[in-house]
Amino acid sequence: MTDSYVYAATRTPFGRFSGALACIRPDDLAALAIGGVLARVPTFDPAGIDDVVWGNANGAGEDNRNVGRMAVLLAGLPTSVPATTVNRLCGSSLDAVMIGSRAIESGDADVVLTGGVESMSRAPWVLPKPERAYPAGDVTAVSSTLGWRLVNERMPKEWTVSLGEANEQLAEGFHISRERQDEFAVRSHRLADAAWEAGFYEALVVSVAVGDGEGAVLVRDEGIRLGSTVDTLAGLEPAFRPDGVITAGNASPLSDGASAVLLGSRAAAGRIGVDPLARVAGRGAFALDPRMFGFAPVEAANRALRRAGITWSDVSAVELNEAFAVQALACVDAWDVDPDTVNAKGGAIALGHPLGASGGRLLGTLAHRLRESGGRWGVAAVCIGVGQALAMVLENVAEANR
């Protein structure tokens, strides 16, 4: 077995629902991310990519029919570069990285391009096909943007509650207050803005031309609101229960965007043309009751740490997807980790959460945080609807070689 490494990572800015990126098809967004990551390795011949593994959660509209392969073709890569698309909902692009890293470690591939895309703005309404011709009754169009749809009647009702209601139950079970959630959300916006102002994301984000206006370009995540305060968030109405604690202010927004991560073996460094950023040191997957999906990253990360042969005391950086403030807080509370190491460059509440792209965003941010800080070990983790989670441990190559 050989090791697998992260050589480069990039992403588009993440756009608001019906925002600047709503005019761009998801396959085109994916192609932009692919072009962006390959621009980070300008001497590498993309014909040397053994496979592309791409994440996508919805796949019901313009992202249908293997959006990974469509993106490869739209990005102008040689037609000899194969691609597949994987769907593990919010964990899709982290799953893509995990699959790609295993292919390298097993010797099946030397270079694998991974990533993911989601345009929640362009997710279509869908209709079930009738079981017989010309039904007399009405048919309801169902939004494919987020959450359960066309649910099997055999599924227990308690499992198919909305994502928001599931997290209201999580808040009750772990006694996490509305004020604490709002404080966490404000922190996300503050740290995201600070990271952009400090230039951290310039090496990670590829700008996107938008709209019909000449020169119109999106260079920064649209969801960051520096003016958010605990007092302003306290004035928002609960989104899922009249007396609930979850609002639009302490949950991640619907978003559009794409991310890409280039993986390779150590032997591929010469062909890729740059030194690797980080080694994939451990992976973990976990599942539990669908209503508890927000808490699933706890054990997924613990498993990844055990496989890396380290403990939380070794970890200096954590990237945890902030689907909801309450689930992020529940996970951080359960880990033996300094909360200040979690999402130090902002999280999904501020940056956005385009489902199929978030895992690649987490991993790219983590690799660059380790390189910036000199920390050796980091963890990326994401909760996944229907009761799952994934996590990955990275080792900073520069620090490991000291």
How are the SSEs placed, and which strands pair?
Layout: E1 4-11, E2 15-16, H1 26-39, E3 51-55, H2 67-74, E4 83-86, H3 92-106, E5 111-119, E6 125-126, E7 142-143, H4 163-174, H5 178-197, E8 208-209, E9 217-218, H6 230-234, E10 255-265, H7 269-272, E11 278-287, H8 297-308, E12 315-320, H9 325-334, H10 348-351, H11 358-373, E13 377-384, E14 388-396, H12 397-400
Parallel strand pairs: 3-4, 3-5, 12-13
Antiparallel strand pairs: 1-10, 1-11, 2-10, 5-10, 6-7, 8-9, 11-14, 13-14
Helix pairs in contact: 1-2, 3-11
Can you describe this structure?
- The chain has 402 residues and is of the alpha+beta class.
- The protein has a domain at 4-123 and 253-396: Thiolase/Chalcone synthase (Peroxisomal Thiolase, Chain A, domain 1, 3-Layer(aba) Sandwich).
- The chain has 12 helices and 14 strands.
- The strands form 3 sheets. Strands 1, 2, 3, 4, 5, 10, 11, 12, 13 and 14 form a 10-stranded mixed β-sheet that branches. A two-stranded antiparallel sheet has the order 6-7. The chain has a two-stranded antiparallel ribbon with strand order 8-9.
- Strand 3 (51-55), helix 2 (67-74) and strand 4 form a beta-alpha-beta unit.
- It is globular, with a radius of gyration of 20 Å.
Which characteristics define this entry?
two-stranded antiparallel sheet, 31% helix, Peroxisomal Thiolase, Chain A, domain 1, 402 residues, alpha+beta
Counting helices, strands and paired strands, the structural category is alpha+beta
Helix content class: 25-40%
Order of helices and strands: EEHEHEHEEEHHEEHEHEHEHHHEEH
Radius of gyration in whole Å, from Cα?
Answer: 20 Å
Q: Strand count, sense and closure of the main sheet?
A: 10 strands, mixed
Query: What is the strand content?
Result: 15-25%
Low-pLDDT stretches are none
> How much is the average pLDDT?
96
- Find the CATH topology of the domain at 4-123 and 253-396: Peroxisomal Thiolase, Chain A, domain 1
Number of E strands: 14
Shape: globular
CATH architecture tag of the domain at 4-123 and 253-396: 3-Layer(aba) Sandwich
| Ends apart, CA distance between termini | 23 Å
Q: Would you identify the CATH H-level superfamily of the domain at 4-123 and 253-396?
A: Thiolase/Chalcone synthase
- The first-level CATH class of the domain at 4-123 and 253-396 is given as Alpha Beta
Total helical elements: 12
